[in-house]
């Protein structure tokens, strides 16, 4: 690094023009506070492209001079450090003289100030520099680079000029910052440059790889988009081709083939009908023969019925005559028996009274029984009358009342008894038994009426279910389930449909046990999950369908007939008891039954003799009438059957003849239609290419499209897709996709090449990092040696821990240089741990700073230190002086004149400044004291 030899200021701050010698190792600038010491240092800083101290800048100093131009000029040393010319500090700037002039020109530019720099060989005054062309002048950034080439690195610039009273700032660096600063000062710049260049090259390659990856991803995205468009284009073309194939080939061929098959099937059907018609003609001949025979049987049956009716009438008259002859004799015998019974007790008043009581009781019993039977008959008759004119059995009164309330509230509804019809009477008992509990379940028409309807049901105490969720019965139920024999005309509760579908119909309980699960027999024996039980319902209580009404009527009519027979018997018994009671009453009044027996004994005896014969005659007459009646019934049945067979055969013959006439008329029309269709089919076939209608081709079309209808639906679907879909119609999209594939392939190759280059760069960075680490180790060892030597001069024990360095950027970034100081044997103190005093802080910073500048091989360089002796006692000031002398660097120091004179002891040149007098235009000249060089 170069040394300063002289400095010239022109119109800088309050200095008009002055020249100062700086050709010494230590230059001390002394003067009172405010006399321009820092101003002089800031002039040097500005000339070297550094920042001024204390927030000031060059514009402030130029403005104070109140001139249009200010000049800063220095002459610096440029002697070679070795015999090679390239070892001169400014050799890189192509300056090879022993002296180099550095100049800074600050000009007013409108309302602002602009500085330019110039570097020339030799000692060239300002007057000549003014004539230099503008192209030779440099900006601040180029100027700093020029000075870096001469040894004034950016790292040295950061610590070159510490501000006033801040000489302890260097010890405030962190160990990591200190290590970086040491390497920047001592490091092999070429190795560092190579390492930085390799890292930069690798970063550029990494960025290129990332950019190539982004370009590849973008290209792949574009390729994917183009491939999607290609797929859409190909799908569109495929649909166009399929639409054309369907319209021109598939639909016409399949339609023709189906038409052909239909024509063949219909012709076969016409032939079958023709054969069947011939068979029916033979059947009609048989019907005619059979009809003649049945007519004869019908006439014979009619004659037999008429004959039996005549015989039955005669037998009935004979029966009536026998009964009329028997009745008075029978009554006379009964009278004799009653008189005998009465005669046996009429002599005993107690027995007669007992007889009267028994007859009275018997009369009362018969009267009660008559009343009971009459009541039952009236109820049955009323029930039968209530069924007259009805289409189905009426509901109970509570159900009818609740349904009437729902109708009044305009709530749509129906009950299950009104919507279920039993289609198989054989299973009526089973269905009635299972559905008995669901007869009066109310199903609402609207779900929204549920709350209102349930409120009415609660008020009316309706005991049956009220359902709002209903479903229609399935169209096709399990043929073996109970649901299969039921027909629903309205929706039913889902749970009821599910229950009926799960009940299997079986012929017997044995079959049901084998089948398992839930089943029921025709006699209504039902087995569910809880077990088996009979759910038989009396026919009089059947409810579902019109057949239930007929069953009820028949049951009530049978009940009425039985009640009529019982009433007749009771009436006869009442008549006999009444006659006996009358006789007993007369006997109690004195009438003698024995006298009447004696008086009518001949009549009674004759009646007893005649009664068996008359009874036998009546029985024979009844038997004769019964036999004729049975024969008449059989004859009537035979006549009915003969008449029915005759009518059935006659109807069959008539139907067959009408069908034959219709067949003859319609068959020819259908046959002509099919022949016309066959001719059209042949004509259509001739228009098709043979390969279209080949058997294999037709089978392939049927496998793919099933039939013509499906093909037409497919055609309509394709038309809809083409009309409504988003399709690609650009024919060049395939070519674009091909080009994009080639481009992506090129990008992939380029990316692989860049990755290879990046890997090579990574290896180069590793190698450069190894060399960088070697230089760093040597640099740290040298700096450590300087610190220890300077510490020994200062009487301070200095230790520095060598950092851990490895061939890894992370380790290098985390590497630290830990330096500790031991003052007066009081223990180790770190860089900035707060344990050192103010003076010790200055000593530490100066040791660190001087260690940076101490170089036995390449002496030189300079540094500005503003008031380095602050906070120091006399002894420490002496120590600082010895530090400065121990190095071969150049120092520019400032100190106030109030300090101890020891501060001037190390100085080779002392510049004495003074304050500008009040009212003066310029500051006084700076005094120069130069130490005489002793010659030995």
UniProtKB/TrEMBL annotation:
Keyword flag Metal-binding? no
Q: Which ranges carry the RecF/RecN/SMC N-terminal domain?
A: 16-908
Q: Some GO term, biological process aspect, for this entry: which one?
A: DNA synthesis involved in DNA repair
List each coiled-coil range: 192-229, 342-376, 546-573, 639-666
Keywords associated with the record: Coiled coil
Per the record, the domain of life is Bacteria
Q: Where is this region: Disordered?
A: 302-328
Biased-composition ranges, Basic and acidic residues, are 302-312
Task: Give the protein name, as stated in the record.
Answer: AAA family ATPase
